[in-house]
């Protein structure tokens, strides 16, 4: 589904991607961890076309997308959740979901408000997130955790083939974190997903293969248990968050 | 050959004028993220300062001194009363400073009348450059621009105040954490930028018609210089001024000045499409 | 169903009475008052078009008068050069298409060049001067500084059968009223559609919208073109009510329309009409000799509205229990 080959990116003198190779199979959930400032968010910026790599290839479904614009890549089925919740705070919860659900429609559909059955999917998400009573509230007034969930809901409604989640539990309480992990496992089951996380408890709960990023390269890959055993990883990363 | 030398000098002097007028705009935008639509009126006030001095029977050179001080003070007042309430609301700032520009224009009309003021020449005569005669005052404008740009760069890169400003630009909350009174730096930066606008107006006063409308044309051009050069950078102003000023001089040589101005603005729009971050970006 | 709504919703009564009052207006007042209100309704349409881009899409246009003026000139020029009966209809279409085309060109260069937010406003400001100069120097076509006046009078109806002269205040008034209601409904439809939702999302965070798969510059060009066309249409309607001169494209007119929208309440549509009527009627109390003071007042008003009253009249009314009178949902 996603192949990243020999990716290089520098910001001035700072090398963030130094020959990165990652392969994510169709339907796989993959966790990406790494110390602060390793370039995890930058990796998402590269995949979504926000920034362009200096060299290397990013293939989505076999197609190299390096030269495509952000919205074109989104239309290929890449949907992204940002590190801090990024929703449209002045609009209602429902409007946020509608906008996400119609993202790949053409202009005629937009102006005629033709949703091609998106309504039922929106209802489904509202129910799953237990957002029914807030549907007409200003989304900016939701709590931090709710905004994170709303954004996850938007990502799902966007009909993605590849989902990128950047720290979906950042700033959440323990209970919220647990619920998010269950939610992701449940609703994202069978969808190709990349999750960036710092929270080790969450990573364990996700039961997904883990890729450790360090200094612009993949340091190691494996199950959570393998990674937790790895001496090197413990030193650079887990040591910081025991 | 003569045409070439004269045209080149015209280009350089036009570019200087543009750089002088745009510098303040770029400083305010780079530092505060504010687009000051009243900058043209600050420029206009600078020109009126010179005209007022000569009307009072004083040497117009006093105007060159008074303009930056008075206009700088007005700028600080605007920052204190209006701009500072609107940081983080860039589009609203635009409208509010637009309101300020209208107010300044109308107040000037009320005080000085709607007509134009007679401008006084600060220097007459011409100087020989590469064997050709060129108005001395235009050479003076070029010289002043070079000095002002050097001074601004010095202030920005070599003084503690400049260091504070650069710190605030790169990370406002960090600057605050380090004990910098950012509200005060904002005020002074706005004041200095306004003073630059006033000085530009004063220096330009002998070369233009001084009337309440004069700021508009300069504002529009100033912004085009800033955008074409690369938003928010001091080097961008110089590059933008050079391109727009040089371009205008070159086109004016071939076509009517009005047509040249139209072409320049349309050209700027095209440049923006091709190089969205400006020619230095 | 309609009946049900009428009984249950007092706001429909209010609207109904307002509508009847507007219809009866020419019957009970002088021709002067009628053309005055017609003119203000034209300005209301102009303001409405600005609210579509400013209030809903966050595109601030400091040169919106360009499109109003372009519409008026296009109308006048078409009336002058199309000698056949029924030319008015073509002239109006022309008056919509020309500003639209200018808007598309401008939008293409700026939105695709990622010049958004404040810098869009600045470039439109710079363009005002340019367009005014173009009109002044192409005096063969536009009449230059003197303005354009030697065109055939605009007429509506069916040529040869029944014709209405738009120079009659009553005809102009009813035409403008119908146009205002039509434009309002069109704008309401647009902002309530999914397209309208996306436009508002773009106002908040256009990068985020792009990640959802929307071609943001394209959508901005579309809404901008619609607004420019509507502004041009209002310019066309202005032709029988005023003079076509370069003054129509002035910086002042662009400033005043921003103030109308801000005073009425941005992002409310109806606020465009409320603000326009409130400020314009205020202006009629000041005699023409006080132009300087009037503009001073407009400047102060712009500052004050932004600083202390950003929601405008309609926002204020909505907040304080007048909800039922303004039957429109906040954006
Ligand atoms: N557009 C940019 N220009 C310059 N430097 C950048 C840019 N984006 C990111 N960086 C730098 O690249 C490095 C990697 O940043 P990135 O945000 O990808 O880290 P991260 O792994 O997501 O960290 P965190 O865990 O804190 O979210 C950082 O040092 C950052 O300052
Ligand atoms: Mg990150």
From TrEMBL, chain A:
GO terms for molecular function: ATP binding; ATP hydrolysis activity. The keyword ATP-binding applies. Pfam families: ABC_tran (PF00005). SMART domains: AAA. PROSITE patterns: ABC_TRANSPORTER_2. It comes from the Bacteria. Residues 2-240 form the ABC transporter domain. InterPro entries: AAA+_ATPase, ABC_AA/LPS_Transport, ABC_transporter-like_ATP-bd, P-loop_NTPase. Keywords: ATP-binding, Nucleotide-binding, Transport. The keyword GTP-binding does not apply. SUPFAM superfamilies: P-loop containing nucleoside triphosphate hydrolases (SSF52540). GO terms for cellular component: plasma membrane. This is ATP-binding cassette domain-containing protein.
TrEMBL record, chain B:
It comes from the Bacteria. It is a multi-pass membrane protein. This is Urea ABC transporter permease subunit UrtB. One of its GO terms (molecular function) is transmembrane transporter activity. It is found in: Cell membrane. PANTHER family: ABC TRANSPORTER PERMEASE PROTEIN, BRANCHED-CHAIN AMINO ACID TRANSPORT SYSTEM PERMEASE PROTEIN LIVH. Belongs to the binding-protein-dependent transport system permease family. LivHM subfamily. The chain crosses the membrane at residues 12-38, 58-78, 90-108, 139-157, 188-210, 222-244, 250-272. It comes from Sneathiella litorea.
From TrEMBL, chain C:
GO terms for cellular component: plasma membrane. It is a multi-pass membrane protein. Keywords: Cell membrane, Membrane, Transmembrane, Transmembrane helix. Pfam families: BPD_transp_2 (PF02653). One of its GO terms (molecular function) is branched-chain amino acid transmembrane transporter activity. It is found in: Cell membrane. CDD domains: TM_PBP1_LivM_like. This is Branched-chain amino acid ABC transporter permease. It comes from Sneathiella litorea.
